Amino acid sequence: VFFESMSNPTLELVDIQAxxxxxxxxxxxxxxxxxxxxxxxxxxxxxxxxxxxYSSTKHIDGQGRxxxxxxxxxxxxIRKVVEPYMKHTGGSMSPFTAWVQLKGLETLDLRVxxxxxxxxxxxxxxxxxxxxxxxxxxxxPSHKQAALAQRQMGSGGTMLAIELAGGxxxxxxxxxxxxxxxISNNLGDAKxxxxxxxxxxxxxxxxxxxxxxxxxxxLVRLSVGIEDTDDLIDDILNALNAV
Length: 243
Prior knowledge:
single chain, alpha/beta, Aspartate Aminotransferase, domain 2, Aspartate Aminotransferase, domain 1, 2 domains, four-stranded mixed beta sheet, 10 helices, 15% strand
């Protein structure tokens, strides 16, 4: 069973413990993509998952410098499944990339907690804004899985999504009006990053598929950085005023 513990970009959560119990009862292996939940806030192994994967380009590097991935699991799984596959396919990390990402781990906890704190403040400041259909953030009481987020992570995380009432044109006008926050498809960075999923990360899906997933033309995904929180809120509000 393979799933994202928090989905990209609509921030839906999966109950790791509940799914793991169902899967293990049938003898299945549980593999969790844990990028959005982060290694700081998620204890997916403790909640029953067998294998955890991270794009370490994200919060672990945290400055968009290197590409990498991390696979966590039992010694038996890593030695008997992962290592033979890596040896035959050649997907090994360079020593320099590994060094950069190990250095990133030294500040991971500080960065991620600061990002999540800002994410909570931004979400609270934006909820109910006249230009927005909705603010999606697991730390808000209005999120349909807020209780699960607190039980599973103890935080709303570093990511949030907003849906502009004016659709694609409004979303693009908003993106172009931002000053502090930069447009990019990356996330989990020290700098705040925003993207328009319908035309970037999920543009290969059909309109019907995107609609089913809640990826509307007005949806914008924000990865919160470590800039001053008030500066980020002012930047977003000014950009909304320009729509």
